[in-house]
Write a structure and sequence with these properties.
CATH superfamily: Formyl transferase, N-terminal domain
Strand content: 15-25%
Distance between the termini: 24 Å
Strand order of the largest sheet: 3-4-5-6
Structural class: alpha/beta
Number of strands: 8
Oligomer: single chain
Shape: globular
């Protein structure tokens, strides 16, 4: 949340945040939004019996705003794009989907699983969100080396740095019309067709 606010303020991201919504009243993102004069609302997940009624409440709140793109950033509850936001919801995940993702894989749980598995590379993924956790078409990924002496905190810090660079770039690509969905594949206008070296 703060990263996107800062990118907009610095003129590196041409966008406007219309509203911030959290599934928790105590989310730091709400405070940061209010400090930046952005409307901020809590729709507590615990107040609703199921995912559908929770999403009914979120979509009702969103009706009050003119929104082109929904950005999930630290939003751990399942958001249903539904017809209004089909292919217009982005999410960030702190691993290289389809590895270490899905229900229950969030925050330090992801990094702990990475370290316990012994893999040498992790990273982050920006993808279009659908009605399943960490499932929609992948927009961008970048690799981050896993060091032998890594802790959860040290690995998380490097991946967080990569996320802060990659997420605004995905938003820029979308807003400039350079993203095109072909089935589950996202084509990017002007992107090199040869693989790039991992960002390690």
């Amino acid at each position: 949340m703060q990263n996107i606010i800062d990118e907009i303020a610095a003129g590196r991201l041409s966008a406007e945040i219309a509203v911030a919504i959290s599934s928790r009243e105590d989310a730091k993102g709400l405070q940061r939004a209010r400090e930046a004069n952005i409307p901020a609302h809590a729709v507590p997940r615990r107040h609703f019996a199921d995912t559908d009624s929770f999403n009914d409440a979120i979509h009702e709140r969103l009706k009050s705003y003119d929104i082109d793109l929904v950005i999930l950033a630290g939003f751990l509850s399942l958001f249903q794009p539904r017809a209004r936001f089909l292919n217009r919801v982005m999410n960030v995940h702190p691993a290289l989907i389809p590895a270490f993702c899905g229900p229950g894989f969030y925050g330090e749980k992801v990094h702990r699983a990475v370290l316990e598995s012994g893999v040498k590379i992790s990273g982050c993924t920006i993808h279009f969100a659908d009605d399943q956790y960490d499932h929609g078409p992948i927009i961008l990924q970048t690799a981050v080396a896993v060091h032998d002496n890594d802790t959860i905190d040290s690995l998380a810090a490097r991946i967080s740095k990569a996320e802060r660079r990659l997420y605004p770039e995905a938003i820029r690509l979308w807003s400039s019309g350079r993203l095109h969905l072909e089935g589950r594949r996202v084509r990017i206008d002007g992107m090199p067709t040869t693989p790039q070296s991992p960002d390690i």
